[in-house]
Design goal:
Blueprint lengths: L9 H9 L6 H13 L10 H14 L3 E5 L5 H9 L5 E6 L2 H14 L5 E5 L2 H7 L6 E6 L6 H8 L3 E10 L15 H14 L4 E6 L5 E6 L1
Length: about 220
């Protein structure tokens, strides 16, 4: 797999991956097939150590009901679904039938298809159609960056007190600290990071894994 934690040296990244529980054959195969089929988009997939972390966080939190905004080819959804408590369910939101067709195949291979419900369509519409009350234990946001604030504002009220929210790419490849970079995607991530930090419903920390992962706990 390609190096994924960008803010440390390649050598230290390789050491960290080598000293973390490895991705199994199914996840490795999925990453390889994604790279082969979608070489221009494969960078959207999370890395193996982030996947392991997400499975561990899901297990440690005892999550039974989870949300994912942005599924791509299914790597992160497998990692979350594997960590769910018995009887757990994961709702996945995505707009691509093509990408998620590969996800469906690997959910079957991973034995988690019975825990995953895919809802195709704009994620904001899917989220707004859910009951407004807090019912989910964990959410992962990893979709179009300009939509992050909208997704956050729909997700947070639907998370149970003590629940977990994970948000990917919050370093924007290190560009968030480049004051001369005014790219729209970079600014969208800066705006989101400020928005989440100001949200008094959560406590959060940014983790330098992958392209930056924000971990929040709802109060």
């Amino acid at each position: 797999m390609a190096r994924s934690s960008e803010q440390i040296s390649p050598e230290l990244d390789a050491y960290a991956v080598a000293h973390s529980s490895p991705a199994d054959e199914i996840l490795t195969s999925l990453a390889t097939e994604t790279q082969q089929r979608y070489p221009d988009s494969a960078g959207m997939q999370i890395g193996p150590e982030q996947g392991t972390l997400m499975t561990l966080l899901t297990r440690l939190s005892g999550a039974r009901r989870a949300l994912e905004v942005g599924t791509f080819t299914g790597y992160s959804s497998i990692c979350i679904a594997r960590g769910l408590a018995d009887g757990g369910r994961l709702i996945c939101c995505d707009v691509s039938e093509e990408w998620t067709s590969l996800a469906r195949a690997y959910w079957d291979r991973a034995g988690v298809a019975d825990r995953v419900e895919l809802r195709l369509g704009p994620a904001l519409d899917t989220l707004r159609a859910l009951p407004a009350e807090a019912a989910f234990d964990l959410a992962f946001i990893d979709a179009d960056k300009g939509g992050y604030i909208g997704y956050w504002d729909e997700v947070v009220p639907r998370i149970m007190p003590g629940g977990t929210i994970l948000v990917d790419n919050t370093f924007s490849h290190g560009r968030v600290i480049d004051t001369g970079n005014h790219d729209a995607i970079v600014q969208a991530i800066r705006d989101f990071n400020d928005h989440a930090l100001a949200d008094d419903r959560v406590d959060l920390v940014m983790i330098p894994i992958g392209d930056g992962l924000t971990l929040a706990r709802k109060r």
